[in-house]
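R.M. (postdoc): so does anyone remember the format we settled on? I'll just put the structure tokens first.
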């Protein structure tokens, strides 16, 4: 198996392997729950994207859970260097909703870990409106040896 295939399999295991339920780390309102992988986040990989550079491996997925009436977004950023980043995560994260013509921001946040190789987490948006589309945008980043490496990802629409 190629090295890149092993990395993809590892990231997918991280995201899918922590099922069941758990309490959210933070609540911004009744519609958003924030999770770090390991808190117990069921992941439905309807739409998943991965990008890789010499420094970063980035994954973002968005899916619609019709049974629970939720939008689930998961993301991870992993440093691919020998040095451990002083900070790694996803910043300028936006969950957007498309009405008739335009996208509007319904949630904004930054997620990070310090002195770690990776950050994995996600959000659950409860009660998405019927007939509207949703997408996520985020800047995956790591600060390695004083230099910031970034990759902007835009999810598929669900």
């Amino acid at each position: 198996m190629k090295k890149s295939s092993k990395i993809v399999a590892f990231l997918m295991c991280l995201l899918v392997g922590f099922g069941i339920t758990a309490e959210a780390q933070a609540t911004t309102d009744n519609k958003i729950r924030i999770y770090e992988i390991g808190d117990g986040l069921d992941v439905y990989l309807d739409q998943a994207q991965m990008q890789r550079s010499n420094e970063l491996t980035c994954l973002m997925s968005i899916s619609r859970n019709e049974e629970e009436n939720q939008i689930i977004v998961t993301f991870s950023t992993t440093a691919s260097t020998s040095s451990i980043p002083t900070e790694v995560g996803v910043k300028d994260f936006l969950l957007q909703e498309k009405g008739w013509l335009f996208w509007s921001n319904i949630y904004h946040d930054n997620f990070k870990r310090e002195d770690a190789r990776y950050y994995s987490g996600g959000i659950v948006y409860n009660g998405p409106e019927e007939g509207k589309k949703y997408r996520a945008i985020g800047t995956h980043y790591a600060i390695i040896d004083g230099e910031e490496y970034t990759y902007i990802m835009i999810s598929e629409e669900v």
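R.M.: ...and that's the designed sequence above, right after the tokens. Also worth knowing: Residues 3-16 form the longest helix (14 residues). The chain is about 10% helix and 55% strand.
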